[in-house]
Amino acid sequence: MPRMAIRPIVTLGDPRLRMPGREITRFDRELATLIDDMIETMDDAPGVGLAAQQVGVDLRVCVMRVDDRLYEVVNPVIAHRSGEEAAWEGCLSVPGFRAWRLRAEHAVMTGRDRNGRNVTVSGHGELARAIQHEFDHLHGEIYIDGLPKDQEILTEDQLDQRLREEARARRPKPGFRLRKVRLPGIDD
Ligand code: NI
């Protein structure tokens, strides 16, 4: 069995990030190696999710690790979205930045595992966010694409400062969450 390997993460500006993923038809050793490498790369970063495009591969497969649970989904579709939740979101392919992004609070992703067996990932909050974020990657989209024009994108330092100031003022804006969410590649 091939040894797992950390692959370089593709970052914003690289056209490989914009490739729509092709449907996977062969559940072979090559796919297993890709998935193992993606898990290794995600955990090393560390991040909560990684899509094939982020390692330069134009296939529809993503991995996620949320609350110590590992998920791998081949040819995923989003079967359900409901509710709304805004939070600061980041991406391993856009290192050092975060944006305030509205997502469905609950999402269900269905697809297959590396062996072709059906899998369902149902999640709220952070897992729902990861499901939607990774799904978008598989279609060549990045989380900052869907932002309203006036939406802020902050550097990590700016966000840290903002959260400190908000905590000091003790009167957060409506809907503003003081809880700092764990985000891909940004929080250890
Ligand atoms: Ni991402």
Overview of this protein structure:
- The protein has a single domain, classed as Peptide deformylase (Peptide Deformylase, Alpha-Beta Complex), CATH 3.90.45.10.
- Helix content is 23%, strand content 28%.
- The protein has helices at 29-44, 125-137, 156-169; strands spanning 49-51, 61-66, 69-82, 85-89, 97-103, 106-112, 118-124, 153-155.
- Strands 1-2-3-6-7 form a five-stranded antiparallel β-sheet, with helices on both faces. It has a three-stranded antiparallel β-sheet with strand order 4-5-8.
- The longest helix has 16 residues, at 29-44.
- The relative contact order is 0.17.
- Nickel (II) ion binds at residues 91-93, 133, 137, 184.
Superfamily at the CATH H level? Answer: Peptide deformylase
The main pleated sheet reads as: 5 strands, antiparallel
In angstroms, what is the radius of gyration?
17 Å
What binds here, in terms of ligands, is: nickel (II) ion
From the N-terminal CA to the C-terminal CA, the straight-line distance is 30 Å
The helical percent reads 10-25%
Number of strands: 8
Based on the structure given, which CATH architecture is correct? Answer: Alpha-Beta Complex
Q: What order do the helices and strands follow?
A: HEEEEEEEHEH
What is the third-level CATH name, the topology? Peptide Deformylase
Structural class: alpha+beta
Give the domain tally: 1
Give the low-pLDDT segments. none
What is the average of the pLDDT values? 92
Q: Give the amount of beta strand, in percent.
A: 25-35%
CATH class bucket: Alpha Beta
By DSSP (H or I, 4+ residues per run), the number of helices equals 3
- Choose one word for the global shape: globular
